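Case study 2.
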Amino acid sequence: MLFSGINSFISSLQADPLGTILEYVFLGVCILLSLILHECAHGYVALKCGDPTAWMLGRLSLNPAKHLDPIGTLCMVFLRVGWAKPVPVNPRNFRHYRRDYILVSIAGITVNFILFLIGLAAYILIRKHTTYTVVWYYLLQFFSMLAQINIGLAIFNLIPVPPLDGYRILNQFAFGGKLDQSLTPQTMMIIRYAFLALCITGVLSPALGKVIGSVFNFFLNLFWKIL
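Prediction:
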């Protein structure tokens, strides 16, 4: 699936070089913004909860090199879902372990959902209340992409598989943090590589696409009525 996405990019580039380049410039900006703010949110909330690990390691930074994972970024570009380097967190520094663990876990998803709402609201306001121009077209393309990427990231990160945020949330809410103790490091590694394979081959894409599309359309119809 990843390779078919690359082939699709090459075909689009041959058919419409300028349009494809602009699309991927917008895509790059949206991906950088979304992934960096996602990871910075984890680190910032951890710092506020008493854990300075991410701050001490320089992860509260807007520098893309601090956050981007090569494979995760490629998946973002060609599959529209992916991941960045997880921010290091030491839960032993939290003031209120379980509460702070959950707050840190949902911080990145919350930021992505806020960016989704901002992008969707901007898209609808521009489309409904401005006159068509070339700038209008590109702004619509940018904000639509921003909304789609961020709702995709938010939903993708809710999947309860390590090392995604959904796993940490499930571990605390349903298992009181004991799930980590029942899974050996070898088992965790097998789960991670198996999940990575599912992402790269696109096995998850149809089901994930339906969920993302349903949520996106729900908010699109809602915002269209109220804005």
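Residues 15 and 94 are 53 Å apart (CA to CA).
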